Amino acid sequence: MKKISRRDFLKSIGLGTAGLTLVASPALASESHSTITGEKLPSKIRKVKETFTVCAYCGCGCGIILYSNDKKEMIFCEGDPDHPINEGSLCSKGNGIIDVYNNVNKKKQREVNKRRITEPLYRAPGSSQWEKKSWDWVLTEVAKRVKAAREATFEEKDDKGVTVNRTTAIATFGSASLDNEENYLLHKMFRSWGLLNIEHHARL
Amino acid sequence: MTNHFNDFINTDVFLMIGSNSAENHPQAMKWIVKAKDKGAKLIVVDPRLTKSAGMADLFARLRPGTDIAFINGMINYIIEKDLYFHDYVLNYTNASFLVNPEYKFADGVFSGLAEKDGKKTYDTQTWQYQMDGDPVKDGIREEAIKKDLTLQDPNCVFQILKKHVSRYDMKTVSKITGTSEDMLKKVYDLFASTGKPNKAGNVIYAMGITQHTYGSQNCRALSVLQLMLGNIGIAGGGVNAQRGESNVQGSTDFAMLNQYLPGYNPMIYAHKHTKLQDYFDKDVPKTSYWSNRNKFLVSMLKAWYGDKATQENDFCFDYIPKHDNKNRTHMGIFSDMAEDKVKGMIAWGQNPAVGGPSSFQGRKAMEKLDWLVAVDLFETETAAFWHRPEADPSKINTEVFFLPAAMSYEKEGTVSNSGRWLQFRYMAVHPPGQAKSDLWIADRLFKAVKKEYQSGGKFPAPMMDMVWNYDIPGEDEPNIEQVAIEINGYDVKTKEVLPGFARLTADGSTACGCWIHSGYWAMDKEAGTVACKRRLKKDKSGLGLFPQYGFAWPANRRIVYNRCSADPAGNPWNPEKELVKWDSLAGKWITADVPDFGATKPAAEPGGQPTPVPPDKTVPFLMQEEGRGRLFAVKGVNDGPLPEHYEPIESPVQNILSKQQNMPLATRFKGDFSKVAPTGSTEYPYVGTTHRVIEHYQSGAVTRNSPTLAEASAHMFANISPNLAQKIGVKTGDDVLLETVRGSITCKVAVSGVCVPMNIDGKEVEVIGMPWCFGYQGIAQGATANDLTPSVGDPNTSIPEYKAFLCNIKKASKY
Question: In chain A, positions 116-135, which contact chain B (CB-CB < 8 Å)?
Fold first, then answer.
């Protein structure tokens, strides 16, 4: 009998790596592997969770399998060998994708990318620094600014008397880096404020 | 893309022009190389010896901004040598259609050019077909258009095109482009070899084509070429834009562009749409699949405004702001910003301080803002504009809010790749610290603004009545499935998730946020999940269609216009690459791909069987009002029915083809954004052009903050020829000063054969290439190439002319 690999097993039960991520605890990777193949996974990836993702960079849409552990570290990524477009290979950017989340520091430990901004920030007029703020604070303050700009400039009718319900004093840029569902909500939100100035990368 | 990446394996000859897949779309290159292994040929046309050019069978170097001359020359060659695909051209394009005899082309301009308030526009009256009936009232009905099936009438599209491109003889094209006549002939012969039923030619393009003041016409030239060779709608063919971001296809589909609503429905304009019926009358065509646009718009309004949207109130039509028809594109907005007309700006996952044209002036314009919100992963140049090197923070009064967001794998959702595939991606880790998914931020921001309006304000109804039902009790994240169902569409009464857009109605009984994606969240029973989450690698066709891998909009169609892959009787032109076929014995269509035409008619009675539509009753180009591919564009572009060569706004030479130096309708701006160098400038004698590098993504905002990538590509540089290096006395690694009329930057110089001087009608022209991914933030920092680029744009799209501008270069003094 043909010995099936763990990957074949996962495919045959119709889960694939994504299904695994959705329904399984991180330990399942090693459990399923040893159950099916009778072998132990290499120690490095014994307790990892696999997650299917699509590359965040160019428009090819390559499949990537991400490996993360129970210490919330991303430890590895590889091109998904089952993906029809990239068939397991990745370019330099795709290979470097986990860098955005964490990096190995000088003590050989993984830490969150030090350059990531992980708290809401505010810079006051004329100030030379950022201040850390809470989400509640920034959301409320931004909302006040949106309202103030809208109230000061909102046109209900244009000079011909046509109902226009718009403001041209707020502009938004972005984004081709967001998911479809996110763009959809942004579009709805911006139009509900009456914005015309909605633009993003596709213009450039 | 009309086609998709896996389909490249079916190509016989690739024409890669204004694109560098090896560097910018490496997995596209993988499929090109696979096809090459099977015998396919690769032609690369580019000003630089790119990594892709290094892998080409033929590399034709051309001067930046001369693509139309190059392609029109090929179309001329194809007509002269009778290499076009006769049956395809006659049956699937508008070649035989007769055009208004008043149509003229003289001195580089088309008939109808008018000037008002210093702004030029075309009246397109003389570009229209000769036809019976009233096209405004009845639409551009194919049957009503006068034709000459012998293609001999001087007013038929074929003869007009033939006459137009006859001016693009090999000698003239060589003088304009700088490509040798010998190379032109080799390229033309090789690509024209695909004008046969059993051959597929594939045009691959990217920003080298679009980023010009005639970028739309560059695309048109490529489309005309592909129609002439019968390469549209077939496996291995197509016009394939290589999209630069993981979801720029999706963000475009969702209309993050001022002039659209989701799904390519035009925005509502005050000057023509005072009520819903106006939109139906003026923007719902009488013919083509777009005649269903009323259903798409009403379903979107139902998705947004639910029970509040009724027949009586025009489905809340007035809740949508009405456009003022001013230039509200990137450049238009920055121009307004410089004039203090914009109070607040939200940069959500975009970095215009590096990515916008004339970015030095762009950053200065941002100082006029009252407030700026940056939603991003890192402190981008845009978020940091107030402490940029050239600024004094104490003098900048803009309030800046930074909202920390999540990386692609710290949240879940779908992205649409260049081949229109929607794929669902999953969350691997939670965002670090207090960073949040963009869906969460959008949800909370909407609610925060709505809350501010609880105490009243101007016309809060569009916010108050907006459907926003994404809460899950006890959960922090919004319900993405609910968002997805809203986008996909559902039956208002039964809440059934719709299988596709064919079910949409204009009576308010269906809701659908974005019609083209309808079906992406429909259940695939075999896969056991919704369409965009499928990962079944079945490919019965053997053509790499993978119909159950993700979801391809529209309707899971993998190759659009696929009716054209078979002859008028329904027999595939190439039986080895069969997408659709009429089985005359069985009296029905055999379809490997989802047909892009009405292959069946719905049953007359509910529950009945649909009836097949015979080949002669099908339409090759369903989205076009006349049902044919447009060799001659009666509508769709505002700057000419045929592509015509003009010089870039900044050019070292005069236009030798006509008296019209530049695109007459080019978008220009005032004040800070008005600066351009004169033609043949001696102060700025070299042609500058921008490009990307494999290690960096767009403005580099993410990759320059990723240690390994920042290290792999750490320096801003300019590529110049050995000839120019000798002239200015520099060697690789030296610092150089690049200057334009707009500003200057200092960077390293790379001396190689990537750029070489070109002979343009006897004049030596040097080309300087530079990546545009650097800025003053991040681990890898460097000068911003866009500080040099002009704010002039295409009249249809306002895409800036990044790819051809004038500059000077000299050795930098030590600093």
Answer: 116-128, 130, 135
Tell me if A184 and B453 make a contact (CB, 8 A cut-off). Answer: no
Residue B671 DSSP SS3: helix
Nearest-angstrom CA–CA distance, B448 and B452: 6
Q: Is residue A78 part of a domain?
A: yes
Mutation to test the B interface, candidates A130, A145, A201, most B Cβ within 10 Å? A201
Pick the CATH number of B5-241 from 3.40.50.150, 2.60.120.280, 3.40.50.11540, 3.40.228.10: 3.40.228.10
Mean pLDDT in residue range B307-324: 98
Name the band, by pLDDT with cuts 50, 70 and 90, for residue A24: very low
Nearest residue to B103 (alpha-carbon basis) of B122, B118, B78: B122
Q: Would you place residue B603 in the very low, low, confident or very high pLDDT band (cuts 50, 70, 90)?
A: confident
Following CA atoms B604, B609, B613, B614 in sequence, which dihedral angle do they give, to the nearest 10 degrees? -130
Task: Write out pLDDT tens, residues B222-266.
Answer: 999 999 999 999 999 999 999 999 999 999 999 999 999 999 999
- The distance of A31 to chain B (nearest Cα, Å) reads 19
pTM over 0.90: yes
> Which pLDDT tens digit goes with each residue over B479-522?
999 999 999 999 999 999 999 999 999 999 999 999 999 999 99
With a cut of 80, say whether residue B307 has pLDDT above it.
Answer: yes
Backbone dihedral region for residue B309 (phi beyond 0: left; psi -120 to 50: alpha; all else: beta): beta
Q: How many CB pairs under 8 A join A and B?
A: 495
Nearest to B321 among A89, A186, A191 (CB): A191
Judged by CB atoms closer than 8 Å, whether chains meet at A203 and B798 is answered as yes
User: Which option is the CATH number for B671-811: 3.40.1440.10, 2.40.40.20, 2.40.160.20, 2.60.40.10?
Assistant: 2.40.40.20
By CA distance, what is A113's nearest residue in B? Answer: B706
Which residues, in sequence order, are CB contacts of B731 under 8 Å at separation 6+?
B725, B749, B751
Helix, strand or coil, per DSSP, at residue B535: strand
